[in-house]
């Protein structure tokens, strides 16, 4: 029986998610409903993607008994409010990254999922790519010896995009793209808490971070170095350096198709989209959708690829980075 999806949000990422779903067997996945702030927008989206039901409110979607899983693809600042709405309605949820604005909000979402006994996952889609599965396998086998240094970068000129630069919309490099570099480090170190975090950055006039550099030290003298920016392009790659070799994830590291291990390159091609996409390699969203389905079939309430404890740690790390750089959101004082 197919997993029946409801889309909370009819924006660019929901479009790409819908296109990605078309690359999966219809017997496994079906989008049965979409909700937006206006019924007209929801109907327009539903028509474009051949979705049977359109709702003009998120409450209607949350109460639809024919939905197995909700995909939450709205502004960062709305994840907490709408996430609680979905979870308290007893719905399973895949929530776009960042999970929420801070650790308090993330804690509320995790608590709500446990109280309702439903599945919850932060949509760090990178974790579900076949390439990243191979990276985890190589690390588990000590293919490059003892890891000494992890480096990750992500730069994308986005100063013209309101949601990237406005504080009220949850803007800044860290929450939008820096999160990918930090989650990569945590994946490599298997969810281990860093011993120390040192962050420095440059702020926009709006008070959000334009660029940031983060250095983390882990036990046994292991280091991680992340740098990210919404002002310039960067290599967008990641490197794991060990005592016996190097693993390199070529750009785009957050949705990768090219892996280099000690100089040997392997390609992991993606299926072609049926409609134009808004973001790079978005048909790769299919992997997180299938991960969710497999978790549901096994009766799991969270994904081993991106456990809730690791989402909580990731948010704690980002909170500390913001604190050191001086980025404060309204949500921090609530």
Automatic annotation (TrEMBL):
InterPro entries tied to this protein: Gfo/Idh/MocA-like_OxRdtase_N (IPR000683), Gfo/Idh/MocA_domain (IPR050984), GFO_IDH_MocA-like_dom (IPR055170), NAD(P)-bd_dom_sf (IPR036291)
Keyword Magnesium: no
A Pfam family per the record: GFO_IDH_MocA_C3
Alphabetical keyword list: Oxidoreductase
Identification of the protein by name: Trans-1,2-dihydrobenzene-1,2-diol dehydrogenase
GFO/IDH/MocA-like oxidoreductase domain span: 132-248
Alphabetized PANTHER family for the sequence: OXIDOREDUCTASES (PTHR22604), TRANS-1,2-DIHYDROBENZENE-1,2-DIOL DEHYDROGENASE (PTHR22604:SF105)
SUPFAM superfamilies given in the database record: Glyceraldehyde-3-phosphate dehydrogenase-like, C-terminal domain, NAD(P)-binding Rossmann-fold domains
GO molecular function, one term: trans-1,2-dihydrobenzene-1,2-diol dehydrogenase activity
Domain Gfo/Idh/MocA-like oxidoreductase N-terminal, chain residue ranges per copy: 4-121
Similarity annotation: Belongs to the Gfo/Idh/MocA family.
Catalytic activity: (1R,2R)-1,2-dihydrobenzene-1,2-diol + NADP(+) = catechol + NADPH + H(+); D-xylose + NADP(+) = D-xylono-1,5-lactone + NADPH + H(+)
UniProt keyword Nucleotide-binding present: no
EC number: 1.1.1.179, 1.3.1.20
The organism's place on the tree of life at top rank: Eukaryota
Species of the source: Salmo salar
């Amino acid at each position: 029986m197919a997993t029946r999806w409801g889309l909370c949000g009819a924006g660019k990422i929901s479009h790409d998610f819908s296109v990605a779903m078309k690359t999966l067997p219809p017997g496994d996945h079906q989008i049965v409903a979409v909700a937006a702030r206006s019924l007209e927008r929801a109907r327009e989206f539903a028509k474009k993607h051949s979705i049977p039901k359109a709702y003009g409110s998120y409450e209607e979607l949350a109460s639809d008994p024919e939905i197995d899983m909700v995909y939450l693809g709205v502004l960062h600042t709305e994840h907490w409010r709408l996430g609680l709405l979905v979870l308290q309605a007893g719905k399973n949820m895949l929530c776009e990254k960042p999970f929420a604005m801070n650790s308090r909000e993330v804690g509320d979402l995790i608590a709500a999922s446990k109280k309702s006994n439903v599945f919850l996952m932060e949509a760090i889609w990178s974790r579900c790519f076949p390439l990243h599965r191979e990276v985890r396998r190589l690390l588990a086998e000590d293919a490059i010896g003892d890891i000494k240094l992890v480096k990750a970068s992500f730069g994308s000129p986005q100063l013209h995009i309101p949601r990237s630069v406005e504080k009220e919309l949850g803007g800044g490099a860290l929450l939008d793209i820096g999160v990918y570099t930090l989650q990569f480090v945590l994946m490599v170190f298997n969810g281990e808490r860093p011993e120390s975090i040192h962050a420095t950055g440059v702020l926009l006039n709006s008070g959000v971070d334009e660029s940031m550099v983060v250095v983390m030290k882990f036990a046994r003298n292991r280091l991680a170095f992340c740098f990210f920016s919404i002002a310039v392009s960067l290599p967008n790659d990641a490197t794991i350096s060990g005592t016996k070799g190097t693993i390199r994830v070529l750009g785009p590291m957050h949705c990768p198709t090219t892996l280099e291990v000690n100089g040997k390159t392997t390609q992991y091609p993606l299926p072609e989209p049926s409609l134009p996409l808004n973001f790079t390699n978005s048909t790769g969203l299919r992997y997180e959708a299938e991960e969710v389905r497999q978790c549901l079939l096994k009766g799991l309430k969270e994904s081993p690829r991106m456990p809730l404890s690791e989402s909580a740690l990731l948010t704690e790390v980002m909170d500390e980075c913001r604190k050191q750089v001086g980025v404060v959101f309204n949500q921090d004082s609530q």
